[in-house]
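Appendix B, Record 12. Input sequence as logged:
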Amino acid sequence: MKAPTLLALTVLSISTAQAAEGVLTLACEGTVETTDKTQPSDKPEPISMGIIVDFTARTVTGFTGDFPVVAAVNEVAVTFGGFNRTGAFTISGSIDRVTGNVEVFSSVAGSSTRHFSLHCEPKQRTFNAQ
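Logged structural output:
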């Protein structure tokens, strides 16, 4: 293996490892579609939101609650899911680390569901909570 190729692979593996150890802040735009058992689904609504993936704490925030747990991380995807203490709220989703596409499904006590279809870009936080 040639030295430049070996160096590039080393840098890539180090940056991937570093990204999986810290916090990833995403700015996202897309749509959310809500379906309620008592009301038929309308068309998807536009949404703009932030998502924070804390690889150390293994959490994803930005949706309802801070409990979604990071299930798996690799070079191309982050998958997560979780539920609140009563089990009334569940969520599962994935973040494509190559394209920035995010798909998330959430459910509230089986009565309503939400489907988020987002495109996200990494952003740096401008202010830190004190």
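Residues 1-19 have pLDDT under 50 and may be disordered.
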